[in-house]
């Protein structure tokens, strides 16, 4: 049976991120996709295929990982799929509006962009967020203490910056876990 476009996108990103150990392995993009679909369902908004492809491809041209220009990795897949120029631009625009560091304080214009941004931000908090923070820190030669600072610089601020009510609801438990973790960390350090 012929694969679906989503299955082909999953294959594409699996190859692209294979062996990446800085918090951007293939499973990160897959979880962003799954988070995004859950948020979209709960919100009852957004075009499904645009959300799915924007989520799966959201880190394909991240400047920390790839030296591409003009979303070249995402475009390669979307062009192979023979999507219209208009749809390709829309997806690239969503992808470019998602990054936290590039867009501090800015909100994506489309509901699809807002949902994917929330889905990616959920990945930085909770149990997965804690794990990714130390994985990223370790792969950049940072100490545990240094990675703990990142909680105060970014991770604890995320739940207040989410776009959709459904993602805010999903963030509550994750936030509580990080608070408990930091409390325990403080106790063990003293
Ligand atoms: P994404 O590409 O998923 O939006 P980032 O590339 O910003 O996320 O970061 C990947 C993961 O690494 C995130 O979970 C983030 O919290 C963590 N991270 C980013 N910068 C630092 C840092 N300076 N120290 C520790 N962890 C970091
Ligand atoms: Ni990401």
Automatic annotation (TrEMBL):
InterPro entries: HD/PDEase_dom, HD_domain. Residues 25-125 form the HD domain. PROSITE patterns: HD (PS51831). Pfam families: HD. It comes from the Bacteria. This is HD domain-containing protein.
């Amino acid at each position: 049976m012929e694969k679906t476009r989503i299955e082909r996108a999953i294959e594409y990103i699996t190859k692209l991120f294979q062996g990446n150990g800085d918090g951007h392995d293939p499973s990160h993009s897959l979880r962003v996709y799954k988070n995004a679909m859950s948020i979209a369902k709960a919100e009852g908004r957004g075009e499904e295929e645009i959300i799915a492809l924007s989520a799966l491809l959201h880190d394909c041209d991240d400047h920390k990982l790839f030296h591409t220009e003009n979303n070249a990795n995402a475009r390669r897949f979307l062009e192979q799929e023979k999507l219209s120029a208009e749809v390709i631009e829309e997806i690239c625009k969503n992808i470019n509006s998602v990054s936290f560091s590039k867009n501090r304080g800015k909100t994506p214009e489309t509901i699809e962009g807002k949902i994917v941004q929330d889905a990616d931000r959920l990945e930085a908090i909770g149990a997965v967020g804690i794990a990714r923070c130390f994985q990223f820190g370790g792969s950049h030669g940072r100490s545990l203490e240094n990675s703990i600072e990142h909680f105060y610089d970014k991770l604890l601020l995320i739940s207040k910056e989410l776009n959709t009510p459904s993602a805010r609801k999903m963030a509550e438990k994750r936030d509580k876990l990080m608070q408990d973790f930091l409390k325990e960390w403080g106790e063990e350090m003293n």
